[in-house]
């Protein structure tokens, strides 16, 4: 208990798109399961973040009542998305996080990390404490899956497209932490989902992935926890 109390605390902001916009690149493969898959992936992301030792709270930003209700049931603090773009949504969530806990560090986490493991996120948050502003690139080294700032530092997310380059050019430190594949494996395509499946999907995503990717192609997988 003492060790847990000594851990620096983080607020994690997770943006969740409206279901009509979510996972459109998976529409062909997921078919009628696309919306359910989007909710499941976000649920596994939020659930894993909430179990991370350094995470005090998860602030979800969404304009869709379906994931809002589901993620609130999991323990997230939900605020409304003003629908002015991803980075605006993240800033709204960060402002709410600072209002709730002004002394905590604030991080942004993409909502499509269905294999996320709490202990790997913990490694990232520990490393991020060494810098005022930092980020983790995605598995393709093009985008970004995590962005964080120390308490009191301006929150300046630059997500979307080639965000790794934008975060670097803006002065954020790229975190090169070993052993965090689940933090870097976001899911936009069916191949991404297969890669996440090989890491071990969370319990919300796994049943749907088993329908979308039959065992003969994706292999039998068990949830990580």
TrEMBL record:
It catalyses: phosphoenolpyruvate + GTP + H(+) = enolpyruvoyl-2-diphospho-5'-guanosine + diphosphate. Its EC number is 2.7.7.105. Gene3D superfamilies: Spore Coat Polysaccharide Biosynthesis Protein SpsA, Chain A. One of its GO terms (biological process) is F420-0 metabolic process. Pathway: Cofactor biosynthesis; coenzyme F420 biosynthesis. Pfam families: CofC. It comes from the Bacteria. Phosphoenolpyruvate binds at residues 144, 160, 163. It is an enzyme of class 2 (transferase). GO terms for molecular function: GTP binding; phospholactate guanylyltransferase activity. Keywords: GTP-binding, Nucleotide-binding, Nucleotidyltransferase, Transferase. NCBIfam families: F420_cofC (TIGR03552). Belongs to the CofC family. Guanylyltransferase that catalyzes the activation of phosphoenolpyruvate (PEP) as enolpyruvoyl-2-diphospho-5'-guanosine, via the condensation of PEP with GTP. It is involved in the biosynthesis of coenzyme F420, a hydride carrier cofactor. This is Phosphoenolpyruvate guanylyltransferase. The lineage of its organism: Bacteria, Bacillati, Actinomycetota, Actinomycetes, Streptosporangiales. The gene is cofC.
């Amino acid at each position: 208990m003492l060790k847990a109390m000594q851990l620096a605390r983080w607020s994690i902001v997770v943006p969740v798109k409206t279901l009509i916009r979510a996972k459109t690149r998976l529409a062909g493969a997921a078919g009628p399961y696309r919306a359910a898959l989007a909710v499941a992936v976000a649920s596994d992301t939020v659930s894993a973040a909430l179990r991370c030792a350094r995470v005090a709270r998860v602030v979800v930003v969404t304009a869709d009542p379906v994931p809002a209700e589901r993620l609130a049931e999991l323990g997230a603090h939900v605020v409304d998305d003003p629908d002015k773009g991803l980075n605006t949504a993240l800033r709204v969530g960060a402002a709410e996080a600072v209002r709730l806990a002004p002394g905590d560090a604030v991080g942004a986490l993409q909502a499509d990390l269905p294999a996320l493991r709490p202990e790997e996120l913990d490694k990232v948050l520990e490393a991020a404490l060494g810098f005022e502003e930092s980020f983790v690139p995605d598995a393709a080294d093009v985008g970004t899956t995590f962005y964080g700032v120390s308490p009191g530092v301006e929150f300046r997310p630059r997500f979307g497209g080639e965000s790794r380059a934008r975060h670097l050019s803006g002065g954020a430190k790229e975190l090169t932490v070993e052993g965090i594949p689940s933090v870097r494996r976001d899911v936009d395509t069916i191949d991404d989902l297969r890669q996440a499946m090989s890491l071990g999907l969370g319990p919300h995503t796994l049943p749907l992935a088993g329908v979308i990717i039959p065992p003969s192609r994706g292999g039998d997988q068990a949830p990580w926890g």
